[in-house]
Amino acid sequence: MIRVEREIFDIGAEIEALTAGRTDIGAVVSFTGLVRDFNDGSPVTGLTLEHYPGMTERELEKIENEARNRWNLQVSLIIHRYGDMALGEPIVLVVTASPHRQDAFDAALFLMDWLKTKAPFWKQETSTEGETTWVKERQSDFNAAHRWKSNT
Amino acid sequence: MKILYFAWLKTKLQMSAETVDWSEERADIDSLVRWMKARGPAFAEIFSDLEVVRIAVNQEYVTENIPLDDGDEIAFFPPVTGG
To answer: What are the pLDDT digits (tens) for A127-150?
Structure first.
């Protein structure tokens, strides 16, 4: 399941909703990305995320399908926010569930690595002076995504 | 053809979307990019380095030259930075 939304999500409530009434799930892994107050050594006071409506959903669905093909997942969820966000707020949530932990752990890492380099979102940071800057992509994110290519 | 711009491309070009008629000089991705480059200094700057421009046609990434149709939605944007 994927959701692209402006609103803040409740991590506990999302996990609870995914696993409620099920007794076949043995492991749940979740990753939450938060708005941080620094980037590349400079203070950050706020974040705005732009996205490409339509293509974003398609890409996230493709990424989720890929994860479900590669690992034994019983449940998966990707929530990604867009719009204005304050420091400390959640940006993205990935939840995976499987009978045993390894699949859930690996799939969650994969989902984040691929999402970072494929899903059409762009971050714009606000500085202490109130200036806005588009965030540059990171080579480390590209490398992290690339390691999954051979792992089929 | 509907053309969309995102992130710093949108900022630099001061527009997020426009409609461009299909023509022989914009019949595929390569020729569209060539036409874009000739539209002015901001366009020339952006489209001179395709390493920093991602292209999507009808909401799918495109990395090769493909033919374009009048009803296509073409998007130009920088490498993504979500997550």
So the answer is: 999 999 999 999 999 999 999 985
In a domain, A152, yes or no: no
Q: Where are the beta strands (DSSP E) in A6-127?
A: 27-34, 38-39, 42-43, 46-51, 75-81, 83-85, 90-98, 121-126
Helix then strand count (H, E) for chain B reads 3, 5
Q: How many domains does chain A have?
A: 1
Is B19 a domain residue?
yes
Q: How many residues does the structure list for chain B?
A: 83
Most B-contacting residue of A3, A48, A52 (CB-CB within 10 A), to test interface: A52
Q: Which residues of A touch B75 (CB under 8 A)?
A: 52, 55, 120
User: Do A37 and A87 contact (CB within 8 A), yes or no?
Assistant: yes
